[in-house]
Each structure stands twice: as structure tokens, then as C-alpha cells.
Amino acid sequence: MDNKEILEKHASLTAKERASVPPQHMSEQPADIRRRNIKEVPLGFSPEQARLEAVRCLQCKNKPCVAGCPVSIDIPAFMALAAAGDFGAAIKKIKETNLLPAVCGRVCPQEEQCQKPCTLGKVLKDPEKAVSIGRVERFLADWERENDKIEVPAVKASTGKKVAVVGGGPAGLTVAGDLRQRGHDVTLFEALHKSGGVLIYGIPEFRLPKVIVQKEVDLLKRMGVELRSNFIVGKTRTIEQLMKEDGYNAVFVGTGAGLPYFMGVEGENLNGVYSANEYLTRANLMKSYNFPSSDTPIHKSKNVVVVGGGNVAMDSARTALRLGADKVYIVYRRSENEMPARIEEIHHAKEEGIIFNVLMNPVRLHGNPAGELTGVECIKMELGEPDASGRRRPVPVEGSNFIIEADTFVVSIGNGPNPLIPNTTKEIQTNKWGNIIADKETCETTMKGVFAGGDIVLGAATVILAMGEGRRAAESIDKYLKSV
Prior knowledge:
Elements: H1 3-8, H2 15-19, H3 31-34, H4 47-55, H5 64-67, H6 75-83, H7 87-95, H8 101-107, H9 119-123, H10 133-146, E1 162-166, H11 170-181, E2 185-189, H12 198-201, H13 210-223, E3 226-228, H14 239-244, E4 250-253, E5 259-260, E6 273-275, H15 276-284, E7 303-307, H16 311-322, E8 327-332, H17 343-351, E9 355-358, E10 360-367, E11 373-386, E12 392-396, E13 402-405, E14 408-411, E15 415-416, H18 420-424, E16 450-452, H19 455-458, H20 463-483
Helix pairs in contact: 4-6, 4-10, 6-7, 7-10, 8-10, 11-20, 15-16
């Protein structure tokens, strides 16, 4: 059958016929062009491609994809609607459980969540041929936005209860939206000048255009959520003051994991050394790529070394290219197989010319008399026995030191939880890593009326996991407010 016939007969196709429809390819900016601009890399599906990809869904009765989704989107239902070309109904179905589909369709690790258990991938014995759930979700969200079809969710009658949401990242945005729909008065407190958390300051424009995040934030405002920026809870006001003096009946803490870890090697105080947090915040939120038109400068680099193997490391390296670097190196102490970054991000980085130095680890940073970084001394590694994470432990190879000439070094080895609220709220207990202790099911903390979720509880995790936490927290907060 040709594509036209497939779409005409979509509802009556057998599982075998659906499985025979080839996966749809999403076009991208060519690597040699995109490496010097900040525009989005993937260009999205066409309407026909989105329908054909949705047709590939086998409509399994046991819905393994839904079990793999942290916010339990009814994936077969929205796929059936998309296959029929009813894009409006399809996006409404998604938004029953996910108010951020344009974000999730771009940055969620679908290959490890909803697409990993996909029956089609198992039938074809190739996980890369599973239904591209995220790409269809992205298309539907973009179709809604580009055609001015975004509808403000219905808000129930006011309950008279006030909720403070601390932190405007994925967890906070989700909690705010869900609780407002239930009729509660919600104020979202954001420490920075724009809400969005890691979606705004951490994920680069070429992966997640900021206009998309702003649209999602604007939708909350249209629902009646009050947004208060440049407001640091723990400094401007404490949790206790919000509840006892300002009249909030409940508080949700979603302040994330924004405390960068450093390596502790000699020379980390040299000029040209950044945490990935600072580097990406300057480039993304503060638009240093547009200096001097923007107010925030960033080091003009020739040779950049990024240490780490996660998505943040890939974002930092690819950002460095777009800021004009001649050479950018990823240095990672394990092999590429152990890299936690998404396969797609590694692939894009390689296409753009990022140099991968795996099984290597920085041990010292060298500088000149002016205090400027000149080189990164590394040692070669080999893999030994598995450690607690299940990955083989990297072991240094004695006498294998070498130097990479560099004027910029970006540390991307993880982040710790933001300590401000635990440090200013004695009733909130934390674990040995500084994460807020919260019930796994209810998200309740050790302080009555205070709930927490996202990276401040989980440690650095994914956008969709933070949103899943936000959904559970909103349900628990709603129940709590009905009891007080």
C-alpha cells in the first residue's frame, strides 16, 4: 500500500499491516550549518509523517507504553486520534495528564521510558523501530501552538485555599497547573527573572526553543496562577513566613538540583573554568551568545574541554561550538557505552564535530602567570570491576598523563540539591546527600503542609520524572487542603 491508502484504511489495518509501515524520518538542520547557529536541530514531522507514525501503533490492550510514562499519558488513544488526522482531539487527550507536551516531545528520554517497552519494537526485534511516541507528541503540541489552538484548561470554582509553589521548573509548573485546575489559588515563586527552571537556564535553544517554554508559562498565567519572579524563598521570605504570616495553606518545594559539583583538582580556580550550570545559564537565560547586545559576557574560547558524559555535558559542548570555539572535546572517564547521555544527543554532537576522548579523566589544570587556563592534564583510564551503579569502575593507567591545550574547561559531573530551603527550615529533614526527605507516594515532607518533588528529592533526574512527581504532589496537596 502507498501512504495515501495506508491513511485511508488506518482504522481497519491489521497489526501485521501496521508493523509493515516504515518508521518516519525527522529531517534536521545539516550539521555543518547548525553547529554555528542556535536554531532548533530537528525540524519536526509533517502532518502526513505524524499520521503515518501514529498508524504504526499496534493499539495494544495491555498498553506497556503507558506503564513506561511517568505521567501515564494514554498513548494508544492519542495515537489513534492522530492517525485519523484529528490533531485537536489528540492533543487534548495528551493534556489530560501532561500540560507540557511540546517540552516533553523534545527533551524526554522516550527511548528509555515509553518507547522501551513498545510492543512494535519487540515484534520487529529492534528498539529503534518502536513507535516514535515523542515525535508525534511534539508534532501535535507544535500544531496546536502554530495554529493558535491552545485552549485554557477549565478551572473549578475557588476553594479559598492558597498554595505556594517554590521553584518554576518542570515539577513546580506541573503542580501549579494541576492545583489551579482544582480551584485553589496558586502563587509560583521563582528565584530568577524568568520561570521555567532548567527548561529556561539549562537546556539550550537548539534543543528546546525558549518561546515554547514561555507559551507554557503564559498558559498558567491565563489560568490565574500568580507568578512572582526574583523572589528567593529562604531569603526573601522563609517557608514558615509564607505559611504563618502570608496565609498559605500548603507549600510545594521544587527547587531542583542546582548546586554544581566540581572535581577538586589543582587549577579549578583559573579563569576560563566554569560549572556547566554557569556556562549554560549565561548562554541560555542570559543570552551571552548575543554579547554585546546582551549584558552577560562569556569567555571567547578557541579550545574547550567538557568533562562528563551526560546530556548536560553534550549541551555544554554543543553550546561551546555555537559560541565560536574551534575545537571542543568531551572527556569522559568510562567508555562511550557507559555514557548516560541520550544516544540522539551523542549522535548529534559527533555529527557537529565534537571530539570524544573516552577512558580519560582530568587530573590537573594548567595556567599562565595571568591566571588563565592553558591546558587540561588528563590520565588514561581502563575499566575494572563493576561499582555500585553497575557500571565498570574506571581505573587510572599510571604514567599515561597527557595535556590537551585549552582555554575553557566546563565541569559537568553532576549537581547536588539546592540547600537554601533545608538550611532555613529546620522542620524539613534531608538525607545524607542533602535531598529533602519526602514520602514516595504523597510527596509529604517532615513539615506539616509542606510537600516536595523533582530533583530536590530525586537528585538530578529527567524533566518527565519531575513532572510525574509534580502530579502526585498536586493530588496529595488537594487531599490535604480538603482536610484542613
